[in-house]
Write a structure and sequence with these properties.
Elements: E1 2-5, H1 23-28, E2 32-36, H2 47-52, E3 56-58, H3 60-64, E4 68-73, H4 82-86, E5 94-98, H5 105-114, E6 117-120, H6 135-154, E7 162-164, E8 167-169, E9 173-177, H7 181-193, E10 196-200, H8 207-212, E11 216-217, H9 239-254, E12 258-261, H10 276-280, E13 287-290, E14 307-310, E15 313-316, H11 326-344, E16 345-346, E17 360-361, H12 368-373, E18 376-377, E19 380-381, H13 384-392
Parallel strand pairs: 1-2, 1-4, 2-3, 4-5, 5-6, 9-10, 9-12, 10-11, 12-13, 13-15
Antiparallel strand pairs: 7-8, 14-15, 16-17, 18-19
The structure holds nicotinamide-adenine-dinucleotide.
Nicotinamide-adenine-dinucleotide binds near residues 127, 201 and 263.
């Protein structure tokens, strides 16, 4: 069985789906890796590092000829060049990667029409068993870390409190809104650089986690009703709730040097939590890093992938921070893919208990993980939520 790794073609995408370090584990499963030449270069992994691990180097067509194709961005999350990849896919082939299946309906339908079986990394369920396959979490970890470094590099102040012969420097005040995976990593990273950190989340269950990474939880007299769904994700609230939330957030935002927002609602537009008037209340030189920029942003003034300067406050809306730390992002992502493939592959065992014979990939939808991530199969879109969205179009 072969696993193909094409070079990523989305503009600015520097990650690679498979790093050399996991190739030996694929070999143990009976899977041989075929890499498009140069696919790992931008992430810091030259072809020679793959060859050392006994991978084959070939063309893009060679990578797409494999039984399994592993990508960071399958066509759904590669709107510019993805359709040329779809044309290379074939009947029964398994394609694994980010696919944006709840938004990119046409790309998903086109993959279904090619007969390929698409497994979407966004849909890995949040259950303990699937934690090591959860690429959204691993990429959010990188984004939370990098958001802090971006803020520190932009702020005209230092983060730590320093007592020096030239006087005392006060610590920067960082406010993190939304304390999921990215937010908690941002808190921990800002603490390490020496900032004083406040944080808030709509899910009250997060208070202890915020405190355990060293931040102060900002209490708000707000009743969110049901703040989270069964999957642990925040639920969308009504506009009057967000209105009240903005009033309560105003003072903390105004008093912060850095605001990092991560409040996302899966498949929905991000709620606006920081208005223009709140930005205007911040001191000149302050910085906002809006990690929800891809779906509209948590700050009213955010423009995706642009630097906005409003009355001296810099607002950054990066949409692909994991790609700016491509070495470790790729390493973590590869591990997520490997664990998923290990979960799907079956091999006959010999009398000594050792795996023998050719591996087969089993997509059994009685299994919760497979059922959740399988988007296309047998020429159709099979995922109920994705189908519903398509029918509603
Ligand atoms: N396998 C697992 O068990 C698993 C895997 C990943 C995450 N999780 C958990 O799922 C939860 C969500 O994590 P995530 O990082 O994916 O979240 P996310 O990216 O969906 O959202 C980021 C954060 O923003 C918060 N938020 C949303 N609207 C808000 C608002 N109006 N005001 C303030 N905050 C708001 C959310 O509550 C969340 O904490 C976390 O508790 C995480 O630990 C569990």
């Amino acid at each position: 069985m072969k696993l193909g790794v094409p070079r990523e073609t989305f503009p600015g995408e520097r990650r690679v789906a498979i790093v050399p370090g996991v190739i030996a584990s694929f070999a143990k499963l009976g899977i041989e890796v075929v890499l498009e030449s140069g696919a790992g270069t931008e992430a810091g992994f030259p072809d020679s590092a793959y060859v050392d691990q006994k991978a084959t180097i070939g063309s893009r067509a060679d990578a797409f000829a494999a039984d399994i194709v592993a990508q960071v961005r399958t066509p759904g999350s590669n709107p510019i060049h993805g359709s040329s990849d779809t044309a290379l896919m074939r009947q029964g082939q398994v394609v694994i990667g980010f696919a944006d299946p709840l938004t990119a309906a046409e790309a998903v339908e086109a993959i279904a029409a090619r007969g390929a079986r698409l497994l979407s990394m966004e849909l890995v369920p949040r259950i303990t068993r699937a934690q090591s396959m959860d690429a959204l979490s691993s990429m959010a970890t990188v984004a939370g870390y990098k958001a802090v470094l971006l803020a520190a590099g932009t702020l005209p102040r230092m983060f730590p409190m320093l007592n020096t012969a030239a006087g005392t420097v006060t610590a920067a005040r960082v406010f993190v809104i939304g304390a999921g995976v990215a937010g908690l990593q941002a808190i921990a990273s800002a603490k390490r650089v020496g900032a004083r950190v406040d944080a808030y989340d709509v899910r009250p269950a997060v208070k202890e986690q915020i405190q355990s990474v060293g931040a102060r939880f900002v209490e708000m007299p707000l009743e969110a009703g049901e703040a989270q769904d069964a999957g642990g994700y925040a639920k969308a609230q009504d506009e009057s709730f967000y209105q009240r939330q903005r009033e309560l957030l105003h003072k903390t935002v105004a008093g912060s040097d850095v605001v990092i927002t991560t409040a996302a609602i899966p498949g929905k537009r991000s709620p606006v939590l920081v208005t223009a008037s709140m930005v205007e209340a911040m001191a000149p030189g302050s910085v906002i890093v809006d990690l929800a920029a891809e779906r509209g942003g948590n700050c009213e003034l955010t423009r995706a992938d642009e630097v906005v300067i409003h009355r001296g406050v810099t607002i950054l809306g990066p949409t692909n921070l994991p790609s700016t730390v491509p070495y470790h992002s790729s390493q973590m992502y590869s591990r997520n893919i490997l664990t998923l493939v290990q979960h799907l592959v079956r091999r006959e065992k010999g009398a000594d208990g050792k795996a023998t014979g050719a591996p087969t990939l089993v997509l059994n939808t009685d299994d919760e993980i497979t059922k959740e991530i399988l988007v296309t199969d047998g020429g159709h879109v099979v995922h109920p939520r994705v189908r519903q969205l398509q029918e509603a179009r």
